[in-house]
Task: structure prediction
Amino acid sequence: MERKEEEERKTTAQREEEEEEEGKMTTAQREEEEEEEGKMTTAQREEEEEEERKTTAHREEEEEVDEDEEVEGEGAAADRPDEDKDAAVMKKKMKFKDSKFVPGIIYLGHIPPKLRPKHLRNMLSVHGEIGRVFLQPEDTHVRRRKKKSGLRRCDFTEGWVEFRDKRVAKSVAASLHNTQMGNRKRHRFSADLWCIKYLHRFQWTHLSEQLAYQRTVQQQRLRTEVSQAKRETNFYLNNVDKSSHMDKDRKKRRRDGGQVDDKMWDFTQRQTEDEIQMKKKKKKDSISQKHLDKARLIQQKSQSNVSLLTKIFNSNQSQ
Result:
């Protein structure tokens, strides 16, 4: 019995070892299979990407060939009949329609009060598609004055409007300049006129750069003004401190019985307008008196010469 139990134990131990070995083999095989599958998927992906690149390059070559053929066809259309010419013109028109439009910007020099960007967009969108709109608000000093007077409204001074097509912008600037904003009499802005100008070769980035430059200039100006005000206040405070120290020193000297030299400042007041005019009159009178004196001397000399000449001629006649 004991022998049988030992044999059974050995057989169970052998079976467990065999099962463990089989489990290890299966896990190793699975890992190897998964690695092979991963390698296969990456290789397939790389092959697919290469195929896509080849197809795109092939398409680009075909498009270039088609364009060259179209150009050749257009060049040969001059020698072909009228039907071929019409077909080439139709192709050109279709290409022009499909091409992207170049945006154009117009400048508004006058913005009436109570006009907002939404109103401007509604009024100009009738003529063409509008992109971006910018209106320059009033200065901060003007806003403060309005707030003090009771008006909280913010008005605008000038504006820029971007059209999707620059040809539309040119036509709008040429047709609407110096015309009424509203066609109807009851329109809110019927009494105002359009002041529009098309900006040639002007882009929206130029506007943003200009606004940024203006902001930096304004900030620099404010900094300089603040620094100058600080200098003036510091100079004034320093002079006040000096004067207080000098007053204290004088009081101490007087208490001690010393001599105190009170400085007297001699100020020359600027002359008034009446004083200036009086000086000018005196100068003119003195000049005129000098001229009169010279004239009298000349006259006296001339009279003396005349008397001498008469004496000489009379003496000759008597002889």
The longest strand covers residues 130-137. Residues 67-82 have pLDDT under 50 and may be disordered. The beta strands are 104-108, 130-137, 156-163, 196-199.
